[in-house]
């Protein structure tokens, strides 16, 4: 009779030992907390939202947790919508979002913070127009042509509009397969915002997060778009410049010249842009001017924000959020993200404005 | 029976054709199966190293780092899910086969279990999140929540496979036990369960394998952390699938090391299940009554 | 006769009551969980169903929004089942009755392993390996069978079509279906098999006469588990499919209907407000679909009585 019990318990015991055996020790690279508060800063910052920011956040976390070993920063890449929602309901201390809060959300945020909301740009990523066309390495495209290609009105590579942009190139007569994001994303929203403002009516889909045109090739995430563009022939798509790898990237017509995509060219567009009207002083929401005409400025960028409260009930939490945002928006922080995530650092003009806002975070 | 009227040559031909088809199906299935196994093993193996198993990702960017935190998380969350699912699932299967016979409740439950198999994994995650928010407030993240979400996915698999295995125990065995005056509960415990133990263990292993690779529900409720967390009831807990997904979807610059880690994590998941399978076979081999096969 | 009567009503004791109570309790726990999920889906979903078109991101009212998704879900799952059911029965039969024992054990083991591959990996495999390999066959299908609506083309340049998704799903559900069929086949009473063989039946006739009738219920159970997974699979579909939200029988073009689960994963990240409710409501629809499909399957199965050792 005892054997039955043994039968039932033996595997359970085996499994438990395995789990407990592992539990006995921590990871080799994690110091067991020795209690010696070195930086004075401690606690856990729970943040989440935009998955675009994830690799930048990893870089920031590394530096931040190294200087402040008593702190832990968690970032759930649940998406901008989820991040905003959970920040507004009080589930997160800080949200990362590819879009600034709309008016309705702003009202909720003021309730949640019982005061003003701090919204600062932290991550600017250039969006490249990537293509895979055997025999063609360099491609110039005007906004109107890009709009036509993604709208589906320009269907072959030797179309007159493309020829006009590239008088010297030999273009094949093959079909264009435009690749778009099949998931809802801030990248799509910023790309369609660019097309809507700059394509002179060639793009008719409006400014959207969900790709509006039925048809064409859809792919999930930046990596999906990149692999679809790589996998097909005569494909063209849009994706973060940092992930473009060895794919060709098109130079985009700005004013009268063509600008290649680069982090430097992308940072400049923020200086040329205007803040969104009617916002509190702590809310640096930016309306990116996609129709800039200055040479050397690249207008297709994704601007991602971090959203926090100006006042927190808890002194420690306020300190934590403040020093996190101070680091993230500092020159060092921006350089770290540029190196490890391929983002465009905030220009000094924008950086100063942001620093002044972050400085106002305090405990109530 | 029509077979008796079929000429012998035709029966032989049909038999040969069937053999070809059955073997063909097997060979056909092998292609994708080996292709996937090979992909995972060949891309994952280079990532494995002592550091990979003992380091977490805390303060690691670019090369280096490991999956220790995610490995701990996956083992804890899956173990918790198993502890929840197996008793409920197995008892339900016993109810269906031994006690439910002809009862309307049993018909309903059998049916609802089938429906439960169709719950998309992300919905299970959202459900667990909504449930835990009721008790712990907004923004709750804990490994145990992940275990509950996985249980929702796991229970139907346990019930379904255990039920099939229990049903296959010949009635003669039960009747023999009853005839000897053995009470029903002991008949179930001593005769029915041991007879079907091999199948039940396979079923449970399959159920664990089914959920151990789930990503979406764990991202919602267990979250993602790059530090080790042993506490199922507090704070975020990394798990291997979520780790792999996030390593693929935002790899940073350059993407190489991160993607290698993702394949390494996938290979480790495979190894865990392989180990589990071995243990399961051992258990069923040791404890099942001697069979003819 | 009296002996049989007695055996149907064994001695009842305290232990029996406890055991019966515990198992009934477990069954009721499942009812409660399911009720919980159903209530959650309904409460969260109904506002999404009632939302007016301009309140949700899709800009459509609920039915036209969810219609193509339902179509895509059923189409992808149907393709997966059509491929996986015969193959898994074949594989299981091969392992249980055709292959040499040692080989069979190893093969069964390898196939079980595949049940554990995370769906993300199936997705990566689908994009990186399978889709590329299928571009040429799709071109051939378009050229030679283009008169059928399924293969009307134009064939996708990347191979990321709903047929590819169906194949990936088939591979994903193959392990669990094979495992259950195999276990059930192995449990065929040896006496039945030997009786069939003794009567001069060929191996195939033995399978038909002794194995399949015995295993019918198990095969259906395996298929239902596979179908459930195929209907609800999220990440792999989201990664592989080039989805456009259309209704189309064309299996090989890059314009494909999306599936409910994949659509939730693709849209959920950036959703807020009533759009979230609409997505949860689409989850409710998937729940109902599973319900209906199961009712249909039950009706089919119940027409021929299940074999069960426990049935009197």
Automatic annotation (TrEMBL), chain A:
It comes from the Bacteria. Residues 1-27 form the signal peptide. Residues 168-188 are annotated as: Disordered. Pfam families: PBP_like_2. CDD domains: PBP2_PstS. Residues 36-331 form the PBP domain. The keyword Glycosyltransferase does not apply. This is Phosphate-binding protein. The lineage of its organism: Bacteria, Bacillati, Actinomycetota, Actinomycetes, Propionibacteriales.
Automatic annotation (TrEMBL), chain B:
Keywords: Cell membrane, Membrane, Phosphate transport, Transmembrane, Transmembrane helix, Transport. InterPro entries: MetI-like (IPR000515), MetI-like_sf (IPR035906), Phosphate_PstA (IPR005672), Phosphate_transprt_permease (IPR051408). Pfam families: BPD_transp_1. The chain crosses the membrane at residues 20-41, 66-99, 111-136, 142-159, 191-212, 262-283. GO terms for cellular component: plasma membrane. Gene3D superfamilies: MetI-like. It is found in: Cell membrane. This is Phosphate transport system permease protein PstA. It comes from Aeromicrobium terrae. The lineage of its organism: Bacteria, Bacillati, Actinomycetota, Actinomycetes, Propionibacteriales.
From TrEMBL, chain C:
GO terms for molecular function: phosphate transmembrane transporter activity. Residues 70-297 form the ABC transmembrane type-1 domain. Pfam families: BPD_transp_1. GO terms for cellular component: plasma membrane. The gene is pstC. Part of the binding-protein-dependent transport system for phosphate; probably responsible for the translocation of the substrate across the membrane. It comes from Aeromicrobium terrae. It is a multi-pass membrane protein. Keywords: Cell membrane, Membrane, Phosphate transport, Transmembrane, Transmembrane helix, Transport. The chain crosses the membrane at residues 18-42, 62-95, 107-131, 161-181, 234-252, 272-297. It is found in: Cell membrane. Its main location: membrane. One of its GO terms (biological process) is phosphate ion transport. This is Phosphate transport system permease protein. Belongs to the binding-protein-dependent transport system permease family. CysTW subfamily.
């Amino acid at each position: 009779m005892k054997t039955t019990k043994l039968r039932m318990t033996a595997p359970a015991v085996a499994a438990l030992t395995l789990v407990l055996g592992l539990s006995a020790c921590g990871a080799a690279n994690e110091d067991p907390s020795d209690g010696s508060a070195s930086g004075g800063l401690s606690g856990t910052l729970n943040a989440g939202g935009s998955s675009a920011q994830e690799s930048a956040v990893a870089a920031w976390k590394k530096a931040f947790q190294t200087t402040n070993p008593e702190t832990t920063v968690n970032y759930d890449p649940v998406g901008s919508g989820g991040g905003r929602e959970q920040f507004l309901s009080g589930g997160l201390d800080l949200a990362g979002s590819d879009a600034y809060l709309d008016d309705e959300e702003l009202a909720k945020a003021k309730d949640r913070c019982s005061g003003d909301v701090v919204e600062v740009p932290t991550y600017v990523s250039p969006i490249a127009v990537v293509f895979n066309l055997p025999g063609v390495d360099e491609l110039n495209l005007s906004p109107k042509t890009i709009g036509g290609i993604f709208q589906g009105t320009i269907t072959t590579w030797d179309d007159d509009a493309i020829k006009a942009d590239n008088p010297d190139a030999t273009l094949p007569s093959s079909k264009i397969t435009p690749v778009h994001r099949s998931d809802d994303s801030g990248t799509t929203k910023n790309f369609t915002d660019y097309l809507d403002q700059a394509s002179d009516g060639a793009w008719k889909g409006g400014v959207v997060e969900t790709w509006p045109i039925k048809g064409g090739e859809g792919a999930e995430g930046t990596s999906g778009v990149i692999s679809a563009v790589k996998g097909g022939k005569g494909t063209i798509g849009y994706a973060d410049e940092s992930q473009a790898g060895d794919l060709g990237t098109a130079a985009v017509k700005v004013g009268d010249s063509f600008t290649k995509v680069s982090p430097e060219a992308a940072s400049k567009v923020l200086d040329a842009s205007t803040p969104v009207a009617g916002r509190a002083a702590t809310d640096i929401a930016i309306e990116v001017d996609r129709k800039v005409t200055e040479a050397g400025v690249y207008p297709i960028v994704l601007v991602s924000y971090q959203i926090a409260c100006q006042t927190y009930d808890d002194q420690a939490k306020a300190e934590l959020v403040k020093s996190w945002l101070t680091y993230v928006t500092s020159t060092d922080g921006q350089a770290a993200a540029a190196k490890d995530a391929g983002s465009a650092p905030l220009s000094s003009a924008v950086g100063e404005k942001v620093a002044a806002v972050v400085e106002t975070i305090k405990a109530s | 029976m029509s077979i008796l009227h079929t000429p012998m040559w035709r029966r032989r031909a049909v038999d040969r054709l069937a053999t070809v088809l059955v073997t063909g199906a097997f060979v056909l299935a092998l292609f994708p199966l080996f292709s996937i196994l090979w992909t995972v093993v060949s891309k994952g193996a280079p990532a494995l190293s002592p550091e990979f198993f003992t380091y977490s990702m805390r303060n690691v960017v670019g090369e280096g780092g490991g999956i220790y935190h995610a490995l701990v998380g996956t083992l804890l969350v899956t173990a918790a899910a198993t502890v929840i699912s197996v008793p409920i699932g197995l008892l339900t299967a016993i109810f269906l086969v031994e006690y439910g016979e002809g009862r309307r409740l049993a018909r309903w439950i059998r049916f609802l279990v089938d429906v439960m198999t169709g719950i998309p994994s992300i919905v299970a995650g959202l459900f667990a999140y909504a449930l835990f928010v009721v008790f712990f407030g907004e923004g709750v993240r804990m490994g145990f929540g992940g275990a509950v979400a996985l249980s929702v996915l796991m229970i139907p698999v346990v019930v379904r496979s255990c039920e099939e295995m229990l049903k296959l125990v010949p009635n003669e065995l039960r009747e023999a036990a009853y005839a000897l005056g053995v009470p029903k509960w002991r008949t179930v415990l001593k005769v029915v369960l041991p007879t079907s133990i091999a199948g039940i263990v396979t079923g449970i292993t399959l159920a664990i394998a089914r959920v151990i690779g789930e990503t979406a529900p764990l991202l919602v409720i267990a979250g993602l952390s790059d530090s080790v967390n042993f506490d199922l009831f507090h704070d975020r807990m990394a798990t291997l699938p979520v780790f792999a997904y996030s390593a693929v979807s935002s790899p940073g610059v350059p993407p190489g090391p991160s993607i290698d880690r993702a394949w390494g994590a996938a290979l480790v998941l495979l190894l865990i299940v392989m180990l589990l399978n071995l243990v399961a076979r051992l258990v069923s081999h040791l404890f099942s009554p001697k069979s003819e096969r | 006769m009296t002996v049989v009567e007695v055996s149907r009503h064994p001695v009842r004791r305290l232990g029996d009551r406890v055991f019966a109570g515990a198992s009934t309790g477990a069954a009721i726990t499942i009812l409660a969980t399911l009720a919980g999920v159903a209530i959650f889906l309904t409460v969260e979903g109904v506002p999404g169903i009632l939302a007016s078109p301009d309140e949700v991101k899709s800009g459509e009212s609920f039915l036209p929004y969810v219609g193509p998704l339902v179509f895509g879900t059923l189409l992808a799952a149907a393709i997966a089942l059509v491929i996986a059911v015969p193959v898994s029965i074949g594989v299981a039969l091969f392992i249980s009755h055709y292959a040499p024992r040692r080989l069979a054990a190893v093969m069964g083991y390898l196939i079980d392993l595949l049940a554990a591959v995370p769906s993300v990996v199936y997705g990566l495999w689908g994009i990186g390996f399978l889709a590329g390999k299928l571009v040429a066959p799709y071109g051939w299908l378009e050229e030679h069978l283009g008169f059928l609506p399924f293969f009307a083309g134009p064939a996708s340049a990347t191979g990321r079509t709903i047929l590819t998704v169906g194949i990936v799903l088939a591979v994903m559900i193959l392990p669990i279906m094979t495992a259950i069929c195999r276990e059930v086949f192995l449990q065929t009473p040896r006496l039945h098999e030997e009786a069939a063989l003794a009567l001069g039946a060929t191996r195939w006739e033995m399978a038909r006469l002794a194995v399949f009738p015995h295993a019918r219920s198990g095969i259906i159970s395996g298929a239902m588990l596979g179908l459930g997974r195929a209907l609800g699979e999220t990440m792999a579909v989201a990664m592989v499919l080039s989805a456009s939200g259309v209704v189309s029988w064309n299996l090989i073009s890059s314009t494909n209907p999306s599936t409910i689960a994949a659509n939730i994963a693709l849209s959920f990240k950036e959703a807020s407000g009533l759009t979230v409710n609409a997505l949860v409501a689409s989850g409710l629809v998937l729940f109902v679909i599973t319900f209906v499909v199961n009712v249909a399957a039950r009706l089919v199965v119940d027409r021929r009585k299940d074999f069960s050792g426990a049935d009197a």
